[in-house]
Design brief:
The complex is a heterotrimer of chains A (about 90), B (about 375) and C (about 290). With about 90 residues, chain A is α+β, with helices and mostly antiparallel strands. Chain A has a domain at about 25-85: Alpha-Beta Plaits (2-Layer Sandwich). In chain A, about 15% of the residues lie in helices and about 20% in strands. In chain A, a hairpin with a 2-residue loop joins strand 3 (about 50-55) and strand 4 (about 60). The longest helix of chain A is centred in the N-terminal third of the chain and has 5 residues, at about 15-20. In chain A, about 40% of the residues are buried. Chain B has two domains: about 1-240, Thiamin diphosphate (ThDP)-binding fold, Pyr/PP domains (Rossmann fold), CATH 3.40.50.970; about 250-380, Rossmann fold, CATH 3.40.50. Chain B is about 40% helix and about 20% strand. Chain B has twelve helices and 16 strands. A seven-stranded mixed β-sheet of chain B has the order 3-2-4-5-7-6-13, sandwiched between helices. Chain B has a six-stranded mixed β-sheet with strand order 10-12-11-14-15-16, sandwiched between helices. In chain B, strand 2 (about 25), helix 2 (about 35-45) and strand 3 (about 50-55) form a beta-alpha-beta unit. Chain B is globular. With about 290 residues, chain C is an alpha/beta fold. Chain C has one domain (about 15-280): 3-Layer(aba) Sandwich (Rossmann fold). Chain C has helices at about 25-35, 50, 75-85, 100-105, 110-115, 165-170, 185-195, 210, 220-230, 255, 270-280; strands at about 40-45, 55, 60, 65-70, 95-100, 125-130, 175-180, 200-205, 235-240, 240-245. Classes of the chains: A alpha+beta (about 90), B alpha/beta (about 375), C alpha/beta (about 290). At the B-C interface, helix 3, helix 4 and strand 9 of B face strand 1, strand 2, strand 3, strand 4 and helix 3 of C.
């Protein structure tokens, strides 16, 4: 048994969660950009997870960060929530 | 080095000033407050470049000092009794965060019933917190221990309490040798170790899972064990640099041929010295062990110095209810299986109760005569 | 000041990968604020969802120095941080303590009032979900009248403590209310607070869908209704000058209250009573 190599002051690496995150399994629905031009850039500030970006090249969702809360689709045009699972019903 | 006549509170303040503390957080409490008043005056007079945070509670006092330390400043506070108890949550927390804070504690009895008088109950209540605890026999110790505390704290990244008793030390004048500032600067070079630093951001005190919590505690405890080696080295350095005579972990007095040893910490050590001198004149082979470092507990050093004695009388100005005196309990636990001496604990001097030569003599006699071996005796009821 | 949403700082200093629930109002508040505060910010967060969602073990979402403090003392910790920066001559860093309603208005109130009275050069944020959500949603002083909580199934019988008035009474540099549905207003307030030399207090209404009995996607919508019905006034007190920063459209309070499960038992009389108090506050008669 060896003691783990940990920082002297108990602490975490900055931003390390960004790389580690994968929230695909949290989602029942996923936001899909249907009309990029219509997406209101304010949704970038309504997203709790920093998962959506809107710039000159259009709107984009990072599906590693997105938990599927649906705020963006509720607050803006051009985004639709679609079910993550579309297979036969009654499986779960 | 010059000699001054000062109280223990002034010695604590002077030690902190010589250590050039940078953040002072403090909430007034009796009898610790004169140390804070003296430090505030140093700051107002421009003799000390330090930020004083006039907090609204003892809890915030240690919290503010902890914030200062986390952001890289040498930080100090003073308190005692109820203030220390209110701080307790932060006391554990600061140790877990490995911050080199130094805190003066003007030991005072705990309520209830309400008491303003000296006792070690407050310090003893913090014995499991992960702070190094040093006890002071006299005002010289208060000053010497405060300066050494910063060196130990910063090398081990572990906070240190410097205990001195309320009134008996905090308000009593004694001669104290004061080291030169230049030499203290060299003894205590400032190495900043900010955990909160915008150029090196960290997420401090993130939630630790069961997979790492034990490891963190192991590492924290390892630093405490290192303190057993470091404290005597720092004391030796200090003595060499300043021509002082400061104790490391423990110090024996008349112990070479002693058959009976008194073990004590704090101001009562000085009183016990008088008794040892008196009994030695009568031909009794008695000695004294001064425990300066109570946490971490210097088990090896204590076992070594006590290995040939027949009787041990441990003086405790504290009571752990249902167990006995804290120091006696530690000594018994660590001497387990190492000899057949009688170890009697004496509870005395609680809440300013009598603990003079007469009471210590009573305790010593009790150890040698009582049928009731290896128990705690209450003296001075 | 208008905020250009297309040209906000790209840098995500907080939020990405956070371990909060989906649709977390606290995380939204944190992201909006950090866009303004920037990377030279040291943030202290007492026990709360906001402290724990920042990360665990050796991983955190924060890219600025972040410290999960004890419950009672974030403003005291921040006071010490500011003192340490000053002694080192570091002047361009925002020092922020960011508490929930418990860590600011209840268990954390003592250190908050202390730091405000001392005019510490820090910003304190109360992100308000109106109940103790990190322990499952119990009643606290910021829980509004009649709201059902996990330990109060009959609804709260007394009013929400008015923290904004209390903080204004400290005579601090800057006091503001904010709401996550109005990021422009919120971010402007953070800009102002960051420019002050003394103490600033920003109180953000940030719904928690679990505690409020709403759907995750309704977090912003319900927050907006709180403002539009007049129950959450957006205002600031800038060095003593009080300004309403947004004029609500005065939708019926029932639209806000009835959208939430925590008010499901609200009677017609209670709703009317709340409507009446809003009307009175805005000088719209009874």
């Amino acid at each position: 048994m060896a003691v783990k190599n940990l920082p002297i002051v108990p602490s975490g690496d900055p931003g390390a969660l960004v790389e580690a995150a994968n929230y695909a399994t949290w989602r029942i629905f996923r936001p899909v950009i249907t009309e990029s031009a219509k997406v209101n850039p304010i949704v970038t500030l309504y997203c709790p997870d920093g998962a959506i970006t809107v710039d000159e090249s259009g709107a984009e969702v990072n599906y590693k960060l997105c938990k599927g809360c649906g705020i963006c689709a509720k607050e803006s045009e051009g985004i639709q929530m679609v079910p993550e699972y579309t297979g036969p019903k009654g499986v779960f | 080095m010059n000699k001054v006549l000062i109280t223990g509170s002034e010695a604590a303040a002077l030690g902190a000033k010589l250590a050039k503390i940078e953040v002072l957080g403090y909430y007034p409490i009796t009898p610790a407050f004169p140390a804070m008043e003296r430090l505030s005056k140093y700051i107002e007079d421009g003799e000390l470049n330090c930020k004083f945070i006039r907090v609204e509670s003892d809890h915030s006092a240690l919290a503010s000092v902890l914030g200062g330390s986390l952001a890289g400043a040498r930080s100090y506070t003073v308190t005692n009794s109820q203030g220390l108890l209110l701080m307790t949550e932060v006391v554990y927390h600061a140790a877990g965060l490995r911050q080199p804070i130094v805190m003066g504690v003007a030991n005072r009895a705990l309520s209830a019933p309400h008491s303003r008088f000296p006792e070690h109950g407050d310090a003893v209540s913090q014995g499991a917190t992960g702070w190094i605890q040093l006890f002071s026999e006299n005002n010289q110790d208060v000053l010497d221990n405060t300066i050494q505390a910063f060196r130990v704290a910063e090398e081990l990244r572990t906070p240190v309490m410097v205990n001195y008793e309320g009134y008996l030390q905090s308000h009593t004048l004694e001669e104290v040798f004061v080291p030169d500032q230049g030499k203290v600067d060299a003894f205590l070079p400032l190495k900043r170790m900010p955990a909160l630093d915008v150029t090196n951001p960290r997420g401090v005190n993130t939630v630790a899972g069961p997979d790492v919590y034990t490891d963190y505690k192991y590492i924290q405890n390892a630093a405490m064990e290192q303190a057993l080696e470091l404290i005597p080295k720092v004391a030796a350095d200090y003595n060499r640099e300043f021509g002082a005579n400061s104790c490391g972990l423990i110090e024996g007095y008349m112990m070479d041929d002693a058959e009976h040893a008194i073990v004590a910490m704090g101001s009562i050590v000085g009183t016990a010295r008088l008794l040892v001198d008196e009994l030695r004149k009568q031909g009794k082979k008695i000695g004294l062990v001064k425990v300066k470092t109570w946490r971490p507990f210097p088990a090896q050093a204590v076992n070594q110095i006590l290995k040939n004695v027949k009787y041990v009388t441990v003086l405790d100005k504290n009571i752990v209810f249902g167990v006995g005196g804290a120091l006696a309990t530690d000594i018994k636990a660590n001497l387990y299986g190492q000899g057949s001496m009688v170890i009697n604990g004496a509870i005395l001097g609680l809440g300013g109760g009598k603990c003079g030569v007469k009471e210590i003599k009573e305790a010593v006699d009790h150890t040698e005569s009582s049928e009731n071996k290896n128990r705690s005796e209450w003296i001075g009821l | 000041m208008t905020i250009d949403f297309k040209n906000l700082p790209k840098q995500e200093l907080f939020g990405q990968g956070n371990v909060g629930c989906k649709g977390c109002g606290a995380a939204i508040a944190g992201r909006q604020a950090m866009k303004v505060l920037g990377e030279r910010t040291i943030i202290t967060i007492p026990a709360s969802c906001m402290a724990t969602l920042g990360g665990n073990n050796t991983k955190t979402t924060w890219k600025t120095p972040f410290y999960h403090t004890l419950f009672e003392c974030a403003p005291a910790i921040s006071s010490g941080v500011r003192a340490a920066l000053e002694i080192q001559g570091i002047k361009d860093v925002n020092v922020v303590s960011w508490g929930g309603d418990a860590g600011s208005a209840d268990i954390g109130f003592q250190s908050l009032t202390g730091a405000a009275e001392r005019q510490e050069h820090i910003i304190h944020v109360l992100y308000d979900n109106e109940m103790y959500m990190n322990t499952g949603g119990q009643t606290g002083s910021q829980t509004p009248l009649y709201a059902i909580t996990s330990n109060g199934a009959l609804g709260k019988k007394v009013h929400k403590k008015n923290m904004l008035a209390i903080m204004e009474a400290h005579g601090i540099d800057y006091v503001a209310s904010a709401n996550i549905a109005y990021p422009e207003d919120l971010m402007n307030k953070f800009k102002k607070a960051a420019s002050k030399k003394g103490f600033s207090y920003i109180h953000i209404l940030a719904p928690c869908h679990r505690g409020w009995g709403i759907k995750p996607e309704e977090t912003i919508e319900v927050a907006r209704k709180a403002v539009e019905c007049g129950m959450w006034e957006l205002f600031e007190v800038d060095e003593g000058k009080r300004t309403r920063t947004y004029e609500p459209s005065f939708i019926p309070v029932a639209d806000y209250l009835k959208a939430q499960g925590r008010f499901k038992n609200l009677t017609a009389e209670q709703t009317a009573e709340l409507q009446k108090s809003v009307n009175k506050y805005y000088g719209k008669g009874e």
